């Protein structure tokens, strides 16, 4: 709602959906405090333990560059990390692309709940597998490879044979709303 600083910016970068207040600001101040981002990751490895620190690493420089769509050149990510100045909501939305929607301050939670409800109306199998593919794409750095890899995953194969995909296609052909079943055990 208000500000995300340092690691908070990196947490925002790792979210699948970001709805924020028009008053929000994002501040990556590490260079202004003498902190080197990779050293911060190493310290996190010691403090948080290996698994959580690996998550922290994905929140760092590679994630910033990937979010901004900057491979192979990284001018916007460099600007963000080397200058360390506040990033406004319009910049976060249009230039860096890590914010989905800016709403009036009082509308942040109602909008987030409305989006959650819209997601909940979809097939949980499809939501889970789509989210898995998005995470895999982030890890691999290539959406096409992730899509192929995910399609061969046992979880995706089970979902492809589940009741919800059949119900969704049947509902579409009958021009009616689907009645989702409990998700397939993935």
Automatic annotation (TrEMBL):
| One Pfam family, short name | ECH_1
Ranges of biased composition (kind: Basic and acidic residues): 157-180
The protein's matches in InterPro entries, at most eight in alphabetical order, are given as:
ClpP/crotonase-like_dom_sf, Enoyl-CoA_hydra/iso, Enoyl-CoA_hydra_C
User: In the UniProt record, which is one GO cellular component term?
Assistant: mitochondrion
CDD domains documented for this protein:
crotonase-like
Q: Where does the record place the region Disordered?
A: 157-186
Which BP terms from GO are recorded?
Answer: fatty acid beta-oxidation
SUPFAM superfamilies assigned to the protein according to its UniProt record, in alphabetical order: ClpP/crotonase
Recorded hits in Gene3D superfamilies, A to Z, give: 2-enoyl-CoA Hydratase, Chain A, domain 1 (3.90.226.10), Lyase 2-enoyl-coa Hydratase, Chain A, domain 2 (1.10.12.10)
One GO MF term: lyase activity
What keywords are assigned to this protein?
Lyase
The protein in question is named: Enoyl-CoA hydratase
The species this protein was found in? Sphaerobolus stellatus (strain SS14)
